[in-house]
């Protein structure tokens, strides 16, 4: 992985490795007179911790210069090292630990997932995939790695502060608008600097890949509608540079937003066609995705993303859903 690159004045990007198909996550360091702000943290692995240490050395950042840690959302690849980084700052200074800032909905997400007793978590996710029509043996196979991912989010941060949409936050000598962009996660936030037409966009808008929009047992209903609604609102932002959570920087904001909208329109048509004679979410996912090279992690997300699209089609009144021993979707 490359060491930090200055992608805009006083904003550095650091790319951290991930042990699944995404390959890496982009995190950011913003410098101003008050110190350094970290935006998103990576997954807690020894390799990622080592790269953070190399980054601090390269930029001459002492641990007590970390002023705060800001999260776009609390998925493990963005949240996993928040507690470790906070502890690093706490040990280096006699003052309070640097706070971790996130939206209220993302705090709820942490409580419902990473902080939940593991037995309860596995019971809930087992029931969820059973309702999706996934075979019993595949449920065990596809959820087998969740325990390790949960562990990669520890230690959890001890000092947190809530930030809310509509407020502004000063980072890197800039004033960012805090914008709620639900869909990929319920409380996902992006940070928009109108003066410089720059946006820290987390996983809301990505190049070359599409953000995963899934419906889980702990999610609010119809995440795809909320994602598409937020995309429509973001299309009007004047953006010269998007700093995403994965892959390349975004230089054609309206063009990429339009591509994401078109992608989901095509995906919805494929999902609708796959339910012509009625099907479970698992059956539809097998029709739409190629499972032959999928890891258990990939299968989990494919089924949950399928359910999000099927729920959207129910909202559009193109499908109906029957709740028996499984969720059964059929064309109206």
Offer a few descriptive terms:
single chain, 332 residues, alpha/beta, Metallo-beta-lactamase, Chain A, 7-stranded mixed beta sheet, 11 helices, 38% helix, 21% strand, globular
Summarize the structure.
It is built from 11 helices and 14 strands. With 332 residues, the chain is of the alpha/beta class.
Molecular structure report:
- There is one protein chain.
- The chain has two domains: 5-110 and 158-251, 4-Layer Sandwich (Metallo-beta-lactamase, Chain A); 125-149 and 261-331, no CATH class.
- 38% of the residues lie in helices and 21% in strands.
- The chain has helices at residues 46-58, 76-79, 82-92, 104-112, 118-131, 136-142, 146-151, 223-234, 253-274, 281-288, 296-315; strands at 5-8, 11-17, 24-32, 35-39, 66-70, 100-102, 160-162, 168-171, 174-180, 189-193, 198-202, 241-244, 319-323, 327-331.
- The strands form three sheets. The chain has a seven-stranded mixed β-sheet. A five-stranded mixed β-sheet has the order 8-9-10-11-12, with no helix packed on it. A two-stranded antiparallel ribbon has the order 13-14.
- Helix 9 crosses helix 10 (281-288) and helix 10 crosses helix 11.
- The chain is globular and about 60 Å long.
- The model has no long low-confidence stretch (mean pLDDT 95).
